[in-house]
Each structure stands twice: as C-alpha cells, then as structure tokens.
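Much of what follows relies on a compact textual record of a protein's fold. Here is one such record, which you should read through line by line:
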Amino acid sequence: MGVIGIQLVVTMVMASVMQKIIPHYSLARWLLCNGSLRWYQHPTEEELRILAGKQQKGKSKKDRKYNGHIESKPLTIPKDIDLHLETKSVTEVDTLALHYFPEYQWLVDFTVAATVVYLVTEVYYNFMKPTQEMNISLIWCLLVLSFAIKVLFSLTTHYFKVEDGGERSVCVTFGFFFFVKAMAVLIVTENYLEFGLETGFTNFSDSAMQFLEKQGLESQGPVSKLTFKFFLAIFCSLIGAFLTFPGLRLAQMHLDALNLATEKITQTLLHINFLAPLFMVLLWVKPITKDYIMNPPLGKESVPLMTEATFDTLRLWLIILLCALRLAMMRSHLQAYLNLAQKCVDQMKKEAGRISTVELQKMVARVFYYLCVIALQYVAPLVMLLHTTLLLKTLGNHSWGIYPESVSTLPVHNSLPSNSLYSELPSGDEKVKVTVTQITVALNSLKNIFTPLLFRGLLSFLTWWIAACLFSTSLFGLFYHQYLTVA
C-alpha cells in the first residue's frame, strides 16, 4: 500500500501557510480592501438637523411629561431633503463590523489553499505518475464544497427567520420548482443531455453486484435506479433553494453594474458574465454542442473536428475560464451593490412625508453591513462550480491536454483483489500485515465499485445543475427587477 509522501508534505505546508501567512495576507480581505470599493457613510443626526433647518436642539424634539418622566420623540425630517452621502474606501477596520465576514474570509482563503494544493498535486501526478497513492487533493475539494454548501445553508436559514417578509415563501417555491425540474431532467434521454449518468449508474450497479456475489451474498443491486434518481432530485432541489437568492441578487447587481459601466468592453464582459451559466448549460446539450462541433455538416460528408476526449477537455477549460471571468467582475458587482445606499436615498427624495433620522441612518448603514453576505452569495456558487469541475476532471479520469493522444482509458471492469494475498504474507508481524492487506483489498474493492464512469456521470450532472440553477434564478431576477418592480 502506497504512502501519501509528497502529498502529505504539501498538505502540511499549506496548513502552516493558512495558520501563519493567510491571517496577514488574505485574498478575501484584499478583494474588499484594495481601495477600489467605496461605501456610503450614513449622516449623523447633527448633519440631518442642519439640513432640515433645525439648528436648535430644543426645537428638534417634542417633549412631554408622562408620570413625572420626560418622553422624547425621535427627530423626523422631510423625505425630500437635499442629502448627499459621503463615500469612503473600504478598509480592514471597516470589515470588522460586517456581518458574515469570518465566514467569507474562511471560504475564500480556504478555497485558494485547496486550489493551490490541487494544482501542485496535478503537477506531481503528471510527472511522477504514482499508481498506489491516494489523491489527497480530492479531500480538499470536497471540503471546499462542504463549506460552500454550509454557508449557503446558513444564509438560507437567515431568510427563513424573517417573519414578515416573503423570503421563506420564495425559497420553498423555488425548492419545489427545482425538484420538479430535476425529476424532468433525469428522465430525459442521453441523446439530448449527455451526462453519462445512466451508463455510470449501470456500471456502478453491476460492479456492486459482482462484489456482493464474490462475498457470497445475493443481491439485486445496492439501490434501484428510481430510488437513486429520487434522492438525487431531492439533493438538487436543496441546491436550487440555496442558490435562489444568490441568483436573484446577481440579476439586480448586473443591472446596476451595467448602468455604472461606461466602456463597451466592460459592458460586454458583464453580459458574458451574466450569460456564463447558460454557456455551461449548453455544453452538455448534445445536439447543440457535441454533435454539431465534433461532426459539423460539411456538404455530403461530416468531418470530425476533434475527438470526444478533446471536447471533454475543452469543456473543462471553458468552465474554468468563465469562473475566472466571474471572479474578475466581482468588484463591479459589489460596487453596484454598495451604490444601493445612494439609490435608496434618491428614491426616498421622490416620496412625500417625513422619516425619522434613525430609520434613515439604518437604511444607509444596512447596505454596507451586509456587504459580506452579498459577497458570499456571489462567491459561493463560483466556488461550487470551480471545484465540482476539478473533481470531474480527476475522478472522471479526464485530461488537461487537448491533443488526441491524451485520451484516457476508463478502468470499467477491473478485477477484484483475490484472497491469495493473505496466503503470501511472511510469518513476521502477521497482524500488522493482515491489517494493511485488508485495507488494500477494501480500497481496491471501492475503486472497482465507484468507477470513473460513475463519477463522470454524477459530477457532470451536478456541474450542469449548479449552472442551470444559477441561470434560472438570475433570469427570473432579471425579469422581476426590469418589469415587475415599480421604479
């Protein structure tokens, strides 16, 4: 049984970097505090009093005695007051008061560390080509996905705690919608959506049945196909519910960022960034992409432009490039969100009546204090897409090269380890060697059951599903903010 070796050293070094260096040089903190983001400060009560023309403190409040105590009413000002908010660059001190800042910093910094570990491991596997070692970078990627889902779950439960708002109904409605959508997608033939999920599940069932037969057990398979798809649809509905508000928020930030952008290049990149999930969804629609690109109709004959393995590799690279574009456009979207403070004030000026100074200050300050919540809603789906793609490459046995000779073979029917390993053991330290051999047999058995065909189908579907949920919710948000909201 192979020892982790170099991978263990890389993991220990990265753990030390996360403990010693990242607290001082954090990418998450730099994304917010690099001087490019500016937030609007709420006016003080004295400034509002001066603007309202109430210079004297005694006239600012109406006092009355009640049971011997003086009861004061809060200061109110006209809504059409001539108020202009002051801006300030986001600093590290300002981030201390932000909601969910520790969760945001941990998710981004851990994602960076996990990505570095994955890249180093890929280089190591490319040159050394180990055969008996466990790829420890997969554990890092799984941890990143678990942290991202945990953060989205925490944000969703926050919406459920709101009693008066309709956020709870929105989450439940979209959850049921995505459950029905997932069930509909899972029954679509692979002639249209080529995830390879049917082939992967069939291979998984056959391998599991062979393993159980060798153990002397009779079984029809670990789980039926209908049960598998049902639980997968439930999991997909939860992901869709978690991605509901990130998609809705992205649509609003996209519209505001387009209004702020003055250069055509920036506007074009914003449109591409918004349509990026749609491009990812179309990559698995077989008649539109794979069949047409690999076998384009050229006269009477169709000449293949690339192999199937090359197309799979290009699909991985395209997803990673679109994720990089989304990260690059993060500042534009966050600044568009911060500008909501001035936008709310401008909207208030169009209304009649009066507003208390406390409510006005809360309205302005709330925008900045929830900046990390918006950042998490922007980053978490991006992290999920990126690391699901990395898992798809490794577990699905894909290649990073685009040349035809880089086609990888899938070990579908591997022979299970025989019991002769026990008889070949030397006499010394038999208990330890038996334990090591048992672990080796168990790991090899798992490799034969959970084959690359299964991971390729399952991870392809999950990557496609995350992109589909993001595009569905953002498209609905775009329609809502453009046509249903009252300007």
